[in-house]
Amino acid sequence: MKLYDGGRAPNPRRVRVFLAEKGISVPLEQVDIARREHQSAAFTALNPLQRIPSLVLDDGTVISESIAICRYFEALQPEPALFGRDPVEAGLVEMWQRRLEFELLMGVAAVFRHTHPAMAELEVPQVPEWAEANRPRVQRFLALLDQHLEGRTFILGDYFSVADITGLIAIDFMRLPKIAVPEELANVRAWHARLAARPSAAA
Amino acid sequence: MKLYDGGRAPNPRRVRVFLAEKGISVPLEQVDIARREHQSAAFTALNPLQRIPSLVLDDGTVISESIAICRYFEALQPEPALFGRDPVEAGLVEMWQRRLEFELLMGVAAVFRHTHPAMAELEVPQVPEWAEANRPRVQRFLALLDQHLEGRTFILGDYFSVADITGLIAIDFMRLPKIAVPEELANVRAWHARLAARPSAAA
């Protein structure tokens, strides 16, 4: 088994944090996006969408998409459960994982990918109007998230889940397009500090 | 339990098709998006993101996001399994579900929402450049999907999964922004015909 990894990029880190929380160790192979190694013929043969992370099993099966890789390991080693411990938690974790991914992580990514000069060759065409449309969407979601986190340690209360991991990744990713969590959103800031203090955050 | 549903919209239908495949019946309540009922104070209290479908359990717990609702029912009633029957299938179903959702369904939705006059009040601001950036992305993914489907009945071969349901929804949704599956993509067309012929497609 080998995990094609990509250093600082948010989705590869999402899987590394997940594996750290699970206590699972997987051999990593670095794919350098800046050197466009993800667009090489060899890597494209593994994943025609040219995305990292991608997991290759011993029989050659390729699982890409960060959350799909996490699902594979969750099924392989259920404890500690990070996708919910009963049907209601399974639904709520998926709901919040998706909200944090679509509203926050993808919103931040849209701002970064469609404005940053370093992305001009990777995001073709860059659509600056789309970046601008995402800025208020990110801020609206952060405000909603702050309300939700009132009185809660993690997204699902006392239960730490993969939704928190996606949240950590998304908030940390905001540094690149220089989006800040507003000072007044104290619940989001405290939640992020709790996540960043976990040993897994160093992964 | 009550499922807030929305008639012809793609995500509410995705859950109805899933429930039909499971043989599960849930009381539905219609939310009329054209009349902006999803933006009412009562519905916003249930789901601050103002999205349908949303499932309300008897204790008041709200699960929104179509795939999260499907996950809840999968955990509640595992058979027939639509999210995979072992760890590798769990990973591959999630991978393809996400590919079909992000590359195809979201791509088609971007074209529709950012070009159609009927969406001008719901998608603010409309960014026509973003719609145009998504058209080639949709076509590239359809070509890749056609290669994958060569020799396969469903996305995972002989095994029907929720990834096929997302595919059915996405292809049917292409009618609204008038995007066609190219004639030469015979595998995609035959796969869609197989999915459309299942009784669940009428849900």
From TrEMBL, chains A, B:
Q: Cite the GST N-terminal domain residue spans from the record.
A: 1-81
Query: What is the superkingdom listed in this entry's lineage?
Result: Bacteria
Please give the InterPro entries that the UniProt record associates with this protein: Glutathione-S-Trfase_C-like, Glutathione-S-Trfase_C_sf, Glutathione_S-Trfase, Glutathione_S-Trfase_N, GST_C, Gtt2-like_C, Gtt2-like_N, Thioredoxin-like_sf
Does the record carry Plastid as a key word? no
Mind listing the UniProt keywords for this protein, alphabetically?
Answer: Transferase
Q: Which Pfam families match?
A: GST_C, GST_N_2
Q: Name one GO molecular function term.
A: transferase activity
Q: Which Gene3D superfamilies match?
A: 1.20.1050.10, Glutaredoxin
Residue ranges constituting the GST C-terminal domain according to the UniProt record: 86-203
Q: What is this protein called?
A: Glutathione S-transferase
